[in-house]
Amino acid sequence: MSDDAAIFVGASTADQYLLLKYANRHGLIAGATGTGKTVTLQTIAEGFSAYGVPVFMADVKGDLSGVSQAGGNNPRALERAKQLGIDGYAGRAFPTIFWDLFGEKGHPIRTTVSEVGPVLMARLLQLNETQEGVLNIVFRIADQQGLLLLDFKDLQALLQWVAENAGSLTTEFGNVSKQSVGTIQRQLLTLSQQGGEGFFGEPALVLTDMIRSDPSGYGAINILAADRLMQSPRLYATFLLWLLSELFESLPEVGDLDKPKFVFFFDEAHLLFDDAPKALLSRIEQVVRLIRSKGVGVYFITQNPLDLPDTVLGQLGNRVQHALRAFTPRDQKAVKVAAETFRPNKGFNAAQAITELGVGEALLSFLDTKGVPFPVERCFIAPPQGRIGPATAEERAAVMSASPLAGRYDKLVDRQSAYEILTGRVTASADPDPAPAPRRRGQYGSVPPTVPATTGPWGPRTAPPPAEVEQPIPPAPRPEPRLKKAQPQPQAPTPEPKKVPAGRQRDSVGITVAKAASRSMATIAAREAAKAVFGRGKAASIGASVGGAVLRGVLGSILRG
């Protein structure tokens, strides 16, 4: 490919081209509603596709789906092509892959909770710093124990476990409030009611399925159906930011190429930055600054340049500015900012021109062969070759059936993850003698079918005692060895009472009575004898002693006999 390979975007006094060599220096398409941003976006996307560069863009209004069908019959397009002197202008269809988070107008797009991560998940759930801290603890526990967080029920199950063991976890991870856990659970329920639950699960999206070309060498145009998604703007922004982060983390460093490997169009870009915390804004700025070296170009589409932070706006080298209406002080400020960010053109008032642009007109400034912005020019935008307007339901269905990804993401897969593992432990504690479990596969391998077992966070194990459910998760991430079933501890046998024959029992009773009677008689006799010899004082004690001695001698003789 030559160094001057470029996309023709528009013309007036001079033709304006977007050089592919600098297409990864990012760009901006701005303008008020109804000024032609969608047509400009389609023209640029078709240009990338024609050079074999795959693109991704969100179809907010449903108009971009027409790129999958041949155009050229639109009278305005034909007139514009004639006005710009485009020879041989004809319509053609471009290779298109439709995507839809809800799986209705395209292939389903899913990812896992673990891949989204706590930062984006906290933004999606609108959590404060305290609640985000609890969510970080949940993700940390999942990482330590090898628990897979794939879908909503996995996250809900682990949150429930954390709430039940909040007291023991506080000493290791810091304060874990049940109230914060409850708030996260409520936000998950709200997001589920908005359709966000379908975004999490498997099979997860493989990015290489987007970065592909058709047999003729045209890059695939990936279109996300976002008309329904716009009812959940946070889900929309979080998904696109996740996709951008995945591109940044998965693609290798390639430096400056002759053409980008992938181009990402972010429509309604203001949703990305509205109410975003400082940490998230820093992350976005970092990704935009560094993803250029991955061969990825990012183009923001928004109404007002002020919707983007200055740190991001300053990194956008390729600019397309449609009309802005300066009706309010903020609009007037936006016009001034937009005009000042362009490279000045002598004898040309950019601020005045922005307010006077018609539909299909724009101010253009792209990077030249040295990477320096061209002086701003007022131009007419070139017409796209695909259809201007939406594709019909039948045409969309035909494109999807012929897609190379047909059937790959349609069937939802629910494999063993945190939900199954944690609920397995609860069931095991309630039933101490479970039936043999069937053979099943998970992240820890297989459970032998001959061993009665349930599944716990550390791999297959026998049913624990009920108290084990309330214990905190130990730090070891590896599965523990199988525990043997607890056996009762041996205790010393209690000696049985010695059995005595019935005759002997009657003899014993008689002997006891005889002992008592003899003891009394002997004591009386000895006391009377002592009176006569020693007097009354010592008679009692001496009588008792003598009586006891006489009794022992008599009874001893009887018993021996």
Your description of this structure?
There is one protein chain. This protein has 561 residues and is an alpha/beta fold. It has 4 domains: 6-107 and 210-401, P-loop containing nucleotide triphosphate hydrolases (Rossmann fold); 113-196, no CATH class; 424-470, no CATH class; 509-560, no CATH class. The chain is built from 17 helices and 16 strands. The protein has helices spanning 37-50, 75-84, 113-125, 129-145, 152-164, 166-173, 178-193, 233-250, 270-273, 278-290, 310-313, 329-341, 350-356, 393-401, 418-430, 502-534, 539-560, and strands at residues 6-11, 15-19, 27-30, 55-59, 96-100, 107-108, 221-225, 262-267, 296-302, 318-321, 361-365, 377-381, 441-442, 445-446, 454-456, 459-461.
What topology does this entry show?
Elements: E1 6-11, E2 15-19, E3 27-30, H1 37-50, E4 55-59, H2 75-84, E5 96-100, E6 107-108, H3 113-125, H4 129-145, H5 152-164, H6 166-173, H7 178-193, E7 221-225, H8 233-250, E8 262-267, H9 270-273, H10 278-290, E9 296-302, H11 310-313, E10 318-321, H12 329-341, H13 350-356, E11 361-365, E12 377-381, H14 393-401, H15 418-430, E13 441-442, E14 445-446, E15 454-456, E16 459-461, H16 502-534, H17 539-560
Parallel strand pairs: 3-9, 3-10, 4-7, 4-8, 5-6, 5-7, 8-9
Antiparallel strand pairs: 1-2, 1-12, 10-11, 11-12, 13-14, 15-16
